[in-house]
Design goal:
The chain is α/β, with parallel strands linked by helices and 188 residues long. The protein has helices at 7-15, 37-47, 62-65, 76-84, 102-105, 119-128, 148-155, and strands at residues 2-4, 20-23, 28-31, 56-59, 90-95, 110-115, 132-136, 161-163, 175-178, 184-186. GO terms for molecular function: ATP binding; double-stranded RNA binding; L-threonylcarbamoyladenylate synthase; nucleotidyltransferase activity; tRNA binding.
């Protein structure tokens, strides 16, 4: 495991199917290429997370998320509300497109997506050219890591790269809302 400032090393690791850790708004996240099934299964094994739960996709822009979302199942008002809320630490559960891999959406016909305002996430997703998975960096039953050092202690031997940086200082995970009902599914 390497601690890197250079985002290109993280992008190279992602392209090779590795799992990385990176700072987000509130905690460090674990990420991989959402379209790489081997990488996703590796990430889920590290987290001890069942594939049925699905994972969040995090991106630099909605354009990066659009291939994973079925906009035809949303009204113009619903889509406008979602887009007006970003970038922010706010995750929306949206209808999944037919191209969204089952290992991303889990047992659902939806996908959880977020456009982050964190500068490292923005740069990383732009350099990678697509969204990353975003799930809290921690082992099952352990608190989420909020510093690079915590990531290295808890997960260092299981991930390829830790991207240097700090969280934005938010406490806890992002809020999650349903794009169709606008209901809050997880308080942020």
């Amino acid at each position: 495991m390497a601690l890197v400032e250079n985002l290109q090393q993280a992008v190279d690791a992602l392209r090779k199917g590795c799992v990385i850790a990176y700072p987000t708004e509130g905690v460090f996240g674990l990420g991989c290429d959402p379209d790489n099934q081997t990488a996703m299964l590796r990430l889920l094994a590290i987290k001890q997370r069942p594939v049925e739960k699905g994972v969040i996709l995090i991106a630099a822009s909605y354009a990066q998320l659009r291939p994973y979302v079925d906009e035809t199942q949303l009204t113009a008002e619903q889509l406008t509300q979602v887009l007006a809320s970003w970038p922010a630490p706010l995750t929306w559960v949206m209808p999944a497109s037919g191209d969204t891999p089952s290992w991303v959406r889990g047992q659902f016909d939806t996908v959880a997506v977020r456009v982050s305002d964190h500068p490292v996430v923005q740069k990383l997703c732009l350099a990678f050219g697509k969204p990353l998975t975003s799930t809290s960096a921690n082992l099952s039953g352990q608190p989420a890591c909020v510093t690079q050092q915590e990531v290295m202690v808890q997960l260092g031997n299981q991930i390829a790269v830790v991207v240097e940086g700090k969280t934005s200082g938010r406490h806890g995970p992002s809020e999650i809302r349903d794009a169709r009902s606008l209901q809050v599914l997880r308080q942020g």
